[in-house]
Design brief:
heterodimer; A: 248 residues; Rossmann fold; nine-stranded mixed sheet; two-stranded antiparallel sheet; 11 strands; B: Butyryl-CoA Dehydrogenase, subunit A, domain 2; Butyryl-CoA Dehydrogenase, subunit A, domain 3; 3 domains; four-stranded antiparallel sheet; 15% strand; ETF_a/b_N (chain A); ETF_beta_N (chain A); electron transport (chain A); Electron transfer flavoprotein subunit beta (chain A)
């Protein structure tokens, strides 16, 4: 069975995000980038499925500019066999990414599409679901457990009431949540091997997709600074203060 | 002229910094307290294949250069592991290079994969109490016997001997009075650390308690002929090959420690509120930290220049020594400035600055003192007469 894993290059989660002074976005110059942490979990799951003998080939895919090749090299170091780079230097919104991934998924004939539940830059949480819709195949989101058995997969997801288990027919899209696994630390020999693995670079036109901008970013602003608090001595005082503000 | 890391080097740095997050500052503080070798960290580096960074791929390594090794060691130190982390892997990563360069095929096959795999643990037994940096005057003797040598002598400042089963050993095979040049007649061996013949005595020291330093008392240790690395009498020449890269690595580690201290202090200065404002708002706090950062980064350029020259096979003695001098001095100043930034809390162990300050004294002093580097630069660069 072949698995397609999508990986996104995002500002590293350790970076203290700064908003550009003109409000057009966040500062990315001289900032560290790395693979979206949820996509690392998806990569790890793919590798574990292969270690269990359920998966024979892992293909990593990304869409974005030239620098995204670094992210694909990380995916190859994780254990992907090869990678596909859909090169697009401009802004890529979820629908464009989903259309491109859907086309690649179809072409590759992969039985499973694994992705992070969302990317930590825009938190859109849309791409996986859109891929499933575009191809009219099953989807299971926020997976905390993945079991593959022949032509079906059992997915456990964390919901408000507890755990829900879904059975989906393959091919299917599975988006992964934080507690699915703990990604391994990369090993130097695997990083060296990854340099020799193939990356196929294609354009959006090669998969018959045009850039679409369904949404427009109007303004990016930092969260408001925390206002100075008031110290209260008793519960009664707290309640009346909250009432005065109309909060209770 | 290109002053940036290659994508591969950047990748190594990022991957190591991430890897080292498994080992918190509290882990290192705990090991500094109890003096127990950081086996978990060591094993993780073995499993990640990092010990083999500069070993040829046919013996289980990755065949990278000293620049990459410096990037890795710096990231280890910078993660908060300091010298406790760096020194725990320094010997397999670097000090075994004489075997790579001068060992015969059989020795390389026998020795290197076991070092890369962490099965054999090695200490580097060169320095002696009565010789100091005057290595040709070492007193340890290896006398020729049937099929090998009989070794007697003393060694000092031998790191990791408590946890090693092998040692790289320098001994005089021809007495000083029988050689034409003082640098001749020394030989290098890679042999068993046989505790029946070698007493290993711990030295109690100021910092880096997790990685032991020792005196060795070698008494009638038999070393078989096949354990000699390179030709008999050529041991000093062999060791000379390692001097510059060792300076590079130690300097890179020092800068890593300095950065760790400065960024810790800056974070504290941002968060510590006194008189209703963060202390980091005061220029009296800002400027010393900014100055230290500038000094460290300038030193790092010199260190990386030396590393790059070495990997290109070019002469790098002046650069390696200059880099190690600057790194040692500036990293010390960085740790001290960080401590002053934290005020009284800088003296408390839970803030980790005092540990870094104690450890940074090692790369400031070793493997060659700042005084001897200045002597070297005065002679080699400024063409001044030798003073000693």
């Amino acid at each position: 069975m072949k698995v397609l894993v999508s990986v996104k290059r995002v500002v590293d989660y350790n970076v203290r995000i700064q908003v550009k002074s003109d409000g057009s976005g966040v500062v990315t110059d001289g900032v560290k980038f790395s693979m979206n942490p949820f996509d690392e979990i998806a990569m790890e799951e793919a590798v574990r499925l292969r270690e269990k003998g359920k998966v024979t080939e892992i293909v990593a895919v990304t869409i974005g500019g030239a620098k995204n090749e670094e992210t694909l090299r990380s995916a190859l170091a994780f254990g992907a066999d090869r990678a596909i780079h859909i090169k697009e230097e401009g802004e890529v919104q979820p629908l464009t990414a989903a259309k491109a991934f859907a086309a690649v998924l179809k072409k590759e004939g992969a039985q499973l599409f694994l992705c992070g539940k969302q990317a930590i830059d825009d938190d859109a949480n849309q791409t996986g679901q859109m891929v499933a819709s575009l191809l009219d195949i099953a989807q299971a989101t926020f997976a905390s457990k993945v079991e593959v058995d022949g032509s079906k997969a059992q997915i456990t997801r964390e919901i408000d009431a507890g755990l829900e288990t879904l059975e989906v027919d393959l091919p299917a899209v599975v988006s992964v949540d934080l507690r699915l696994n703990e990604p391994r630390y990369l090993k130097l020999p695997d990083i060296m091997k990854a340099k020799k693995k193939p990356i196929e670079t294609i354009g959006l036109g090669d998969v018959g997709v045009a850039v679409e901008a369904g949404t427009k970013t109007v303004k990016v602003a930092p969260p408001p600074a925390r206002a100075k608090g008031v110290m209260v001595k008793t519960v009664d005082e707290l309640v009346s203060a909250l009432k005065a503000k109309g909060l209770v | 002229m290109d002053f940036s890391l290659t994508p591969d080097q950047q990748n190594i740095r990022d991957t190591i910094l991430k890897h080292c997050q498994q080992f918190s500052p509290e882990y290192w503080l705990q090991h500094d307290h109890d003096g127990v070798f950081p086996q978990e960290f060591f094993r993780s580096m073995v499993e990640g294949g990092w010990l083999g960074m500069a070993m040829p791929s046919e013996y289980g390594g990755s065949g990278l250069g000293i620049t990459e090794a410096a990037v890795m060691m710096q990231a280890v130190a910078e993660s908060g592991a300091g010298m406790s982390g760096a020194s725990s892997i320094h010997i397999p990563v670097f000090s075994v290079q004489p075997v790579v360069l001068f060992g015969n095929e059989q020795q390389k096959k026998r020795i290197l994969p076991r070092v890369v795999g962490g099965e054999d643990r090695v200490c580097f037994a060169v320095t002696e109490p009565n010789a100091g940096l005057n290595t040709t005057e070492i007193k340890t003797r290896a006398e020729k016997r049937e099929g090998g040598y009989l070794v007697n002598g003393e060694k000092i400042w031998i790191s990791t001997a408590q946890v090693s089963n092998k040692m790289l050993l320098l001994a005089r095979t021809t007495p000083l009075e029988q050689v034409k040049k003082k640098t001749e007649g020394l030989s290098l061996f890679y042999t068993d650390l046989d505790r029946a013949k070698v007493e290993v005595r711990l030295i109690h020291k100021m910092g880096r308690h997790a990685v032991d330093s020792n005196m060795l008392f070698i008494n009638d240790l038999f070393v078989p002929e096949e354990d000699r690395i390179g030709e008999e009498g050529q041991g000093f020449k062999i060791l000379l090959h390692g001097l510059n890269p060792e300076r590079v690595l130690v300097a890179a580690e020092a800068i890593g420690i300095g950065r760790a201290a400065i960024f810790r202090a800056a974070r504290y200065a941002r968060e510590r509120i006194v008189f209703g404002r963060p202390i980091g708002m005061n220029q009296g706090i800002q400027h010393p930290l900014a100055k230290c950062w500038a000094q460290l980064e300038a030193a790092n350029l010199m260190v990386m220049k030396a590393a790059t020259l070495f990997d290109k096979g070019q002469e790098c003695g002046v650069e390696a020594n200059t880099g190690k001098y600057l790194a040692g001095e500036f990293a010390f100043e960085a740790c001290h400035t960080a401590m002053l930034t934290l005020g009284g809390m800088g003296y408390a162990q839970e803030y980790h600055i005092e540990r870094l300050l104690r450890e940074v004294l090692i790369p400031r002093t070793a493997p060659v003192s700042p005084h001897m580097i200045l002597n070297f630069l005065a002679e080699k660069v400024l063409e001044l007469p030798k003073s000693y």
